[in-house]
Write a structure and sequence with these properties.
The protein has 129 residues and is an alpha+beta fold. The protein has a single domain, classed as Thiol Ester Dehydrase, Chain A. Helices cover 16% and strands 50% of the residues. The protein contains one helix and seven strands; from the N terminus they run βββαββββ. The strands form two sheets. The protein has a five-stranded antiparallel beta sheet, covered by helices on one side. Strand 5 and strand 6 form a beta hairpin.
Length: 129
């Protein structure tokens, strides 16, 4: 396993109605940050064989709402490799949006997907014991 800049890992997740926290079925930003943690962990496992430790988030920008019933694609891109540290660019795109105006179970694919949240994360890979 060798970490290299440009490596990407993506997850897709349906946002359940139980995650809605505000009126209009809005989901709080912490929901997406938790997904960023999951995809960052996957990146570390794939590139370094260790879950790594999330050291910080920076440049977190909430660009569009995330709602219950959406399908999100969350992606981590490795942009910098240090001795033990890694810099990741993170994005969350809404790929499918719920359409409660049509019916309780309706939705539509978004073309192109809607960028909802972006961030940068720093992770550290522990030294082996």
């Amino acid at each position: 396993m060798t970490p290299y800049p440009g490596r990407m890992v993506s997850h897709r997740r349906y946002v359940p109605h139980s995650a809605a926290h505000y009126g209009g079925s809005l989901v709080d930003g912490a929901y997406v940050l938790a997904l960023f943690g999951d995809v960052a962990t996957d990146m570390c496992l794939q590139s370094d064989g260790d879950e790594g430790l999330l050291a910080s988030y920076s440049e977190v920008v909430f660009r569009a709402p995330v709602r219950a019933g959406d399908v999100l694609e969350v992606t981590a891109t490795l942009v910098r490799v240090g001795n033990r540290s890694r810099s990741l660019e993170l994005t969350a795109h809404v790929c499918v949006r719920a359409r409660p105006d049509i019916s309780a179970s309706a939705g539509r694919k978004l073309e192109p997907p809607l960028l909802a949240v972006s961030a940068r994360a720093e992770v550290v890979i522990p030294t082996p014991c």
